[in-house]
């Protein structure tokens, strides 16, 4: 009781005194009688009469009842928590003693355990929870084992498929490599020689030399996979040159085992001059057919600046026959130079050697350089192309019509 009285005094002081200080109630705050005048209520609400009094005894009773309810709730919560903690300790002791108690138990399950009317009911309830937890663990263990088995079978299947594929691919590549090597070895004895002139290192930059060697590597691979390969000669290839360094970068250890002839000698020292034909785009002579008895020379040069006449001048100095591919005869040439890459030249020469068909061979020319194959005589196609060009340039349509009418009347008169 004393504690409740002191608590009520503190509440009154903390609640009423600030209001009294705020509204000027300094003297006679608590009169001798057990009543309190409602001055604050009168100030705020004019409807309140000054005769209305607040009974402090009734207010004390209300406050005591609220406080007792709060204290009882706190005591009940404390008891509940202490009982839960005690129940957990009991379960832990039973688990250590070897009884069938679940490892993980929720608060609801713990409350159910505490609500059991007897000890035997508690034991049965705990056994039920223990078996339930055990079944869940067994199910989880089975699922994990199944997952592991499935993953193992998938890995084994992937490994077996991979080994089968890898073994088949390795066997196939080994067989094909042997077949290609056998063909190239035969071409080194019986095949037609094809010469790559490697004397243009001074006319190119380091980057252009690297591009040249890259194209030569592609050419060698294309020749190696063909049905009737050439016997490739890299002539004028000096030791420790940029060409050789780039070849070693690409081939590495296979450079010494490569089935080609690499020599520092000039082709004029190896072959007779009357059999040599230098293929250059600057030649005035156009190649008509592929001659199997001749030895064709291709300049190993990539010139981005398009240095015209370099290979032609070299062929003339050596007194060799020259030839150019008949590009204008079979192709409607669009724009750009008529220089082709080395791998494109190799494809064209191999197709000509196997089939002798210029249309099939010239399909390896980049399509951006021509509009189509020739289907009419060249002079008529030139006229149509000139008409197209004039229309593109935007000349007067009347002049074009007059020119067309004159040509048409001449054709009618000839007929």
UniProtKB/TrEMBL annotation:
Chief location: mitochondrion
Main enzyme class: transferase
UniProt feature coiled coil, ranges: none
EC number: 2.1.1.218, 2.1.1.221
Domain SAM-dependent MTase TRM10-type: 180-372
CDD domains referenced in this protein's UniProt entry, alphabetically: Trm10_MRRP1
GO cellular component, one term: nucleoplasm
Enzymatic reactions: guanosine(9) in tRNA + S-adenosyl-L-methionine = N(1)-methylguanosine(9) in tRNA + S-adenosyl-L-homocysteine + H(+); adenosine(9) in tRNA + S-adenosyl-L-methionine = N(1)-methyladenosine(9) in tRNA + S-adenosyl-L-homocysteine + H(+); an adenosine in mRNA + S-adenosyl-L-methionine = an N(1)-methyladenosine in mRNA + S-adenosyl-L-homocysteine + H(+)
GO biological process terms, semicolon-separated: methylation; mitochondrial tRNA 5'-end processing; positive regulation of mitochondrial translation
Alphabetical keyword list: Coiled coil, Methyltransferase, Mitochondrion, S-adenosyl-L-methionine, Transferase, Transit peptide, tRNA processing
Molecular-function annotations in GO: tRNA (adenine(9)-N1)-methyltransferase activity; tRNA (guanosine(9)-N1)-methyltransferase activity; tRNA binding
InterPro entries tied to this protein: MT_TRM10-typ, MT_TRM10-typ_sf, Trm10_C_MTase_dom, tRNA_m1G_MeTrfase_euk
Record's subcellular location: Mitochondrion
Family annotation (PANTHER family): TRNA (GUANINE-9-) METHYLTRANSFERASE, TRNA METHYLTRANSFERASE 10 HOMOLOG C
Name of the protein this chain belongs to: tRNA methyltransferase 10 homolog C
Record organism: Halcyon senegalensis
